[in-house]
Write a structure and sequence with these properties.
The protein is an alpha/beta fold. The protein has 22 helices and 13 strands. It has helices spanning 15-19, 29-35, 61-68, 89-102, 119-124, 127-141, 152-157, 161-172, 191-203, 227-232, 247-251, 264-278, 290-305, 308-333, 344-356, 382-390, 403-413, 426-431, 447-462, 465-474, 481-485, 491-494, and strands at 24-27, 75-79, 112-114, 145-149, 176-179, 215-220, 237-242, 258-261, 338-342, 363-366, 395-399, 417-420, 436-438. Strands 1-11-10-9-12-13 form a six-stranded mixed beta sheet, sandwiched between helices. Strands 3-2-4-5 form a four-stranded parallel beta sheet, sandwiched between helices. α6 runs parallel beside α8, α13 packs antiparallel against α14 and α14 packs parallel to α19. The N and C termini lie far apart (57 Å). Bound molecules: iron/sulfur cluster (SF4). The site of iron/sulfur cluster has 8 residues, from loops.
């Protein structure tokens, strides 16, 4: 295969450099399909995006390293940063503990250390503190690997984390892996996924693999274990990576028969890197959502692992099992309008599920858009698949979690519920009288059963609509009268001068 990823340097290329990622756009989904690289793009140019003079808040790549590398068991993550960058540790500790519990693993706290850089270190350099932190991590935990995440502060002063990592790899005899993830390097936080995966591909994955023909890498986060029973019917074993995996689980990724994921946004870099560097095939198929996506995804797994017959049996069995239940659910959900507000590729999958359930979903929000994924293979063009199989999405919005824009979107679309993964958006919807279906467990929507799971959760959630309506009647939103009267979420991007007017 053509090598698309550059693993020679310790610094990952950002999403915008590799894929032309954008974070702000509005239009129809079909228009975005036409403008994206799979369809030839904008005549060789980068996809144009709206540019806002104002941002209300977001997430950064360093936090993605924190919740991926920081969730590898038997390893330690050192955040080479001021303490503010480590604010996420509290929430990520809770995610880690809950994830371990859900997978029946021993529950423990994260092992993440901040070098706690101060003003003085900004002047004289923070490398000594980094060295001290590595020593402390080794003394306290004797980990099988140490990851070092950079931050805006250390990137600005130019601390040489690569040399320190090499020095300690030799001294301690374990991989000490630098991950360049300072927030300002990329406009979208998903570059942090790539940064973690880049470091793991370079320094953790076994370079002399002994093949395990029934092992499948499943790139995931913390979701419940829906893949083990599904793949067991195909005589396949699951190797969950990266979150909640051990260092050995990560090392054996090169031994697997293939790599799959639940979301192209998360798995693009690692799956492509495993194929490019270690010959582990990436399953290039639609994502496993709705009937058509799940059928095609399973058939491709069957082809790659030589289990076509088992796959056909499984498809026939599950379709027969799920279809009558789905008919019942559709009756109960009839007439509802839903809005999906999640990460990019995952949202394409969720809209497919909503449409299988007969729910109207003509508006959506994605936090970014990748015009192409790393494999470049059109079988992974999840947005085009959504549009071709389930029809257009009239109001398709790209916005990196800007609440002020989300307010107008909700006002215009008036959904009966929103379906989200990042709960920060839920309180706003709630204050507008709209309940949120939180998919904290990202695996719930996967496969044939996923349609039933999502339908049942929606029924549960809309039963509490009155609570949200009551809330809306008694709260005041924090926006000015002028903003509350606007109908275009992107008006500041189109008329940036408005921000300076009273
Ligand atoms: S790395 Fe930069 S953007 Fe990320 S939390 Fe630290 S200071 Fe903020």
């Amino acid at each position: 295969m053509v090598k698309t990823l550059n693993l020679k340097t310790p610094v990952v290329e950002s999403r915008e450099q590799r894929l032309g990622t954008i974070v702000s756009w509005e239009g129809k989904a079909s228009e975005l399909v036409e403008l994206s690289a799979y369809s030839g793009g904008c005549g060789g140019c980068t996809l144009c995006e709206l540019s806002s003079p104002f941002t209300q808040g977001s997430v950064c790549s360093e936090q993605m390293v924190e919740c991926q590398a920081g969730h590898v068991r038997e390893a330690v993550l050192i955040q080479h940063s001021p303490i503010g960058c480590a604010a996420g540790q509290v929430a990520y500790n809770s995610l880690y503990r809950n994830g371990l519990k859900m997978r029946n693993k021993p529950v423990e706290n994260i092992r993440v250390i901040s070098t706690n850089l101060q003003e003085r270190d900004m002047v004289f350099g923070g490398v000594d503190k980094l060295r001290q932190s590595i020593h402390d991590a080794w003394e306290r935990y004797h980990p099988k690997a140490i990851f070092i995440g950079s931050s805006c502060a250390t990137a600005i002063i130019g601390d040489d984390i690569d040399s320190v990592a090499s020095e300690f790899t030799e001294e301690l005899g374990i991989p000490v892996v630098p991950m360049h993830c300072e927030g300002f390097r990329s406009k979208h936080w998903s570059t942090g996924f790539d940064s973690t995966q880049h470091g793991i591909l370079r320094q953790i994955v076994n370079r002399h693999p002994k093949k395990q023909e029934d092992l499948v890498n499943v790139i995931n986060l913390w979701g419940s274990d829906v893949f083990t029973p599904m793949l067991a019917e195909l005589n396949l074993r699951v190797n969950y990576v990266i979150d909640l995996a051990t260092v050995d689980d990560l090392a054996q990724m090169s031994e697997a028969a293939c790599t799959i994921g639940f979301c192209n946004t998360l798995s693009s870099y690692l799956a492509t890197g495993l194929e490019q560097e270690f010959g582990v095939p990436q399953v290039k198929a639609p994502m496993p959502y709705g009937f058509q996506g799940t059928d095609a995804w399973l058939r491709e797994i069957g082809k790659v692992t030589h289990r076509e017959e088992l796959v056909e049996k499984y498809i026939t069995k599950k379709r027969a099992e799920v279809k009558p239940k789905l008919v019942e659910l559709r009756k109960k959900l009839k007439g509802l309008r839903g809005l999906s507000a999640t990460g990019s590729a995952y949202s394409h999958g969720l809209i497919s599920v909503l449409r299988e359930l007969g729910i109207e979903s003509d508006g959506s929000l994605v936090f970014h858009h990748d015009p192409v994924y790393d494999s470049g293979d059109p079988r992974q063009d999840s947005l085009a698949q959504l549009v071709h199989q389930y029809g257009d999405v009239q109001s398709f919005n790209v916005s990196n979690r800007q609440q002020f824009q989300f307010y107008i979107l909700l006002k215009n679309i008036k959904p009966d519920f929103i379906i989200i993964r990042h709960n920060g958006l839920a309180p706003l919807a709630s204050r507008m009288g709209i309940p949120a279906v939180p998919l904290g467990d990202e695996h719930l929507a996967v496969g044939y059963d996923g349609m039933l799971h999502v339908g049942e959760i929606i029924l549960d959630v809309i039963a509490h609509t009155k609570f949200h309506k009551n809330l809306a009647a008694h709260v005041k939103l924090p926006y000015s009268k002028w903003w509350l009267e606007q109908n275009d979420p992107y008006i500041l991007s189109k008329n940036p001068e408005l921000i300076y007017q009273d």
